[in-house]
Amino acid sequence: MNENLILVLCAVIAYLLGSISFSYIFTKKIRHEDIRKKGSGNAGTTNVLRSYGWGMGLLVFAGDVLKGLLAALIGLHFGGEIGLCVAGVFAIVGHNYSCFLNFKGGKGIAATIGVLLIIQTIPTLIIFTIAIIIVISTKIMSIGSIIGLILSAVAAFIVAPGDPYHYIAVLVIALLGIWSHRENIERLIHGNERKLSLSKK
């Protein structure tokens, strides 16, 4: 099969996988409610966590990580390193702009973790640990997410010097995540970002 066609198929499959909204599916099936009508209206892990507690939040988080991981593995299997990078980017685009939710979605952090676990495994595990410590310390999810995205982009230049596909893909993924947090960044600047309750509901 033509290499370009393979990459297009990797992108389409990854986008469709990324578009699967576990926050919508789980809250609809388990609570019979639309997550988009709760809290911030965002179809993502943090809004589920705030609205329904840690049990549901972690369930959604796991689903989103797995879909990112699966999309990246499919890209790697069929398209090699370029396929991995293409699939990784499009999985995040699918999550943030889901074709199943009128091209809206979450902020892509859990799916990003899944993708980056394949693209740069060790740095991602280290950065995830750092981000968790930041969230626990500040009780602000967006700070941990944004710092994690920045560190991931920096790590890509360190672990893959001379590999443009690798660091361009990670940079694009990081920028997608930062863009999805633009409202959070504005609230952080003004000092009114919502804190996360670390107690179980």
UniProtKB/TrEMBL annotation:
<feature type="transmembrane region" description="Helical">
    <location>
        <begin position="6"/>
        <end position="27"/>
    </location>
</feature>
<keyword id="KW-0808">Transferase</keyword>
<comment type="pathway">
    <text>Lipid metabolism; phospholipid metabolism.</text>
</comment>
<keyword id="KW-1003">Cell membrane</keyword>
<comment type="subunit">
    <text>Probably interacts with PlsX.</text>
</comment>
<comment type="similarity">
    <text>Belongs to the PlsY family.</text>
</comment>
<keyword id="KW-0012">Acyltransferase</keyword>
<comment type="function">
    <text>Catalyzes the transfer of an acyl group from acyl-phosphate (acyl-PO(4)) to glycerol-3-phosphate (G3P) to form lysophosphatidic acid (LPA). This enzyme utilizes acyl-phosphate as fatty acyl donor, but not acyl-CoA or acyl-ACP.</text>
</comment>
<dbReference type="InterPro" id="IPR003811">
    <property type="entry name" value="G3P_acylTferase_PlsY"/>
</dbReference>
<keyword id="KW-0444">Lipid biosynthesis</keyword>
<keyword id="KW-0443">Lipid metabolism</keyword>
<feature type="transmembrane region" description="Helical">
    <location>
        <begin position="143"/>
        <end position="159"/>
    </location>
</feature>
<keyword id="KW-1208">Phospholipid metabolism</keyword>
<keyword id="KW-1133">Transmembrane helix</keyword>
<dbReference type="Pfam" id="PF02660">
    <property type="entry name" value="G3P_acyltransf"/>
</dbReference>
<dbReference type="GO" id="GO:0004366">
    <property type="term" value="F:glycerol-3-phosphate O-acyltransferase activity"/>
</dbReference>
<protein>
    <recommendedName>
        <fullName>Glycerol-3-phosphate acyltransferase</fullName>
        <ecNumber>2.3.1.275</ecNumber>
    </recommendedName>
</protein>
<feature type="transmembrane region" description="Helical">
    <location>
        <begin position="113"/>
        <end position="136"/>
    </location>
</feature>
<keyword id="KW-0594">Phospholipid biosynthesis</keyword>
<keyword id="KW-0472">Membrane</keyword>
<keyword id="KW-0812">Transmembrane</keyword>
<feature type="transmembrane region" description="Helical">
    <location>
        <begin position="69"/>
        <end position="93"/>
    </location>
</feature>
